[in-house]
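Re-run with default settings, no changes from the original entry. Doing this only to confirm the output is reproducible before filing.
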Amino acid sequence: TPTAEFSQSWSIWPSPWNDVSCMKRVLIVDDQEPFRSASRMVVELADGFEVVGEAATGEQAVQFAEEMRPDLVLMDINLPGIDGLEATRQIVSRLPTAKVIIMSTYEAAEYEQRALEAGAVAFISKSDFDPDALTNLDQ
């Protein structure tokens, strides 16, 4: 029937709303589970982003980044094992297309330059992290 053909073709019609390939894949790295959960909510509220994984240590961040190949890594500085700056260095050296945003409770004046030198594209205070900030930082 024409209706069945129409609905069938409609369901496979390409659309930016159902095309997950245009979503930016995000890896969240923080040793505090409550902040990982809060970050996940922010990412889910921002258009065009999806969380592909979470890591609690610098070593896990490097391993998961290699396995999951995220477009964006949200990285805490203070982590057990290797810190977020060293994890950033390792990730950007192994995955040059991945962007890392360092997030911390530390002041930007104290860590922003070190974050950029490690290969991060930006530094943001955790208290300023929201869907708009994520979208603006990723541009």
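The CA atoms of residues 71 and 97 lie 7 Å apart. DSSP finds six helices and five strands in the chain.
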